[in-house]
């Protein structure tokens, strides 16, 4: 029997887990945590205050760490990325709906975010369920999308104004993923296009792709599909990048925010 206390956060994604210390958790409790992640898409665990070593160990439970080539690493911990917002920044990292690392050949399985320094207000993160979005599509649109693949690119980082590393050797060639994926672990179908990194459908021009992609971006991020995380000092959040998209709210002008993030490598994605 697990010691986790699980509280659902919203109708389609999100759960709050309490009752177990991640630093001391036995393998059986970590497996229950993984099960909850696949069920709810995003899980938050307050009052963890993970050390960098604990953060790395938690990530390695899920798989191989995928070091982000655009983020500044934490001093002495190259596997941990800083997600930092300075007090004079008007834009924030991840301030629009996106899926982490969809521009990679093996897109991220999950991301693990540790709240290190929080503003006195704001800075919440929103998540949207891509499985719920798929289920809400009409049968006709599901059929169309199930036959499509889409190109994903890291080129949007070249126009970034949020303090990321944008050296030329960091950029890679675009990659192709199904527009509708079959979740590698559960088999659940999910929409897999996002406004930050998806450029166009395979065999379509960008001009032809834009109307359908624009419709999808609005449809899949409707409030009914979302959950909102209000951060607390020491909180850990883990989300499955195949099941949810997310964005960070830029509503704390004049204040700074620092999060530590590790992303775990995934597997090639298959269509349904």
Keywords:
20% helix, 17 strands, Double-stranded beta-helix, 272 residues, alpha+beta, eight-stranded mixed beta sheet, 5 helices
Characterise the protein shown here.
This protein is α+β, with helices and mostly antiparallel strands and 272 residues long. It has a single domain, classed as Clavaminate synthase-like (Double-stranded beta-helix, 4-Layer Sandwich). It has five helices and 17 strands. It has helices spanning 27-40, 52-62, 130-136, 139-146, 206-220; strands at residues 5-8, 15-18, 42-45, 73-74, 77-85, 110-117, 125-129, 149-152, 175-178, 180-182, 189-191, 198-201, 226-229, 236-240, 244-248, 257-264, 270-271. Strands 1-2-3-14-6-16-5-4 form an eight-stranded mixed β-sheet, covered by helices on one side. Strands 13-7-15 form a three-stranded antiparallel β-sheet. The chain has a three-stranded antiparallel β-sheet with strand order 9-8-12. Helix 1 links the parallel strand 2 (15-18) and strand 3. The longest helix is centred in the last third of the chain and has 15 residues, at 206-220. It is globular and about 50 Å long.
């Amino acid at each position: 029997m697990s010691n986790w206390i699980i509280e659902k956060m919203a109708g389609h994604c999100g759960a709050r887990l309490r009752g177990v210390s991640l630093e001391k958790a036995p393998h059986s409790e970590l497996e229950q945590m993984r099960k909850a992640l696949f069920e709810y898409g995003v899980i938050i665990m307050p009052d963890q205050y993970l050390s960098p070593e604990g953060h790395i160990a938690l990530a390695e439970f899920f798989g191989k760490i995928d070091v982000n080539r655009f983020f500044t690493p934490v001093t002495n911990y190259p596997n941990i990325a800083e997600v930092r917002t300075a007090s004079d920044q008007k834009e924030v990292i991840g301030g629009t709906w996106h899926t982490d690392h969809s521009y990679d050949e093996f897109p991220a399985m999950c991301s693990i975010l540790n709240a290190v320094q929080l503003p006195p207000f704001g800075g919440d993160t929103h998540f949207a369920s891509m499985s719920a979005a798929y289920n809400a599509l009409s049968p006709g649109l599901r059929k169309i999308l199930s036959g499509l693949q889409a190109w994903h690119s890291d080129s949007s980082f070249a126009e970034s104004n949020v303090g990321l590393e944008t050296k030329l050797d960091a950029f890679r060639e675009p990659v192709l993923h199904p527009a509708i994926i079959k979740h590698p672990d559960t088999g659940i179908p999910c929409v897999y296009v996002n406004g930050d990194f998806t450029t166009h459908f395979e065999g379509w021009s960008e001009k032809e792709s834009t109307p359908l992609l624009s419709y999808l971006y609005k449809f899949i991020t409707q409030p009914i599909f979302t959950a909102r995380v209000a951060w607390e000092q020491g909180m850990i959040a883990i989300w499955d990048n195949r099941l949810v998209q997310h964005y960070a709210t830029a509503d704390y002008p004049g204040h700074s925010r620092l999060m530590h993030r590790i992303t775990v490598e995934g597997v090639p994605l298959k269509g349904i």
